[in-house]
Amino acid sequence: MKMTSTTDTGNSGENIAKEFLIKKNYKILNSKWISNHKEIDIIAIDKDVLVIIEVKTRHSNCLIEPEVSVNRTKQRNLVYAAENYVNRFNINMEVRFDIISVIINDNGKHVINHIEDAFYPTQIRNK
Hints:
Layout: H1 6-23, E1 27-35, E2 38-46, E3 49-59, H2 72-88, E4 94-104, E5 110-119, H3 121-124
């Protein structure tokens, strides 16, 4: 079995996620957008909604589902970065937070789980 770095795995997962979103008619605005050391993996538009997407990628031998690793701290960082993005580009749209988990099997095939509205900013802001 070929070993890959977590960076390579993450980049592969993000590319798979972007292709998946494009097929669903999302418009990709940015990827790997950084604000004060907080990164948003993918920023896209779905119809008239700005979608902030966290991509989590694992290999099939991982013991937990990738999306479980998007904890409160990560959610808070995404909300912070999203607020900066919206303010910087003067965006006046509804914002949604999604998680896409990508599990890459040993044979190179992958399984995607797209969780729309994975969390809401009001749930985490003061916790």
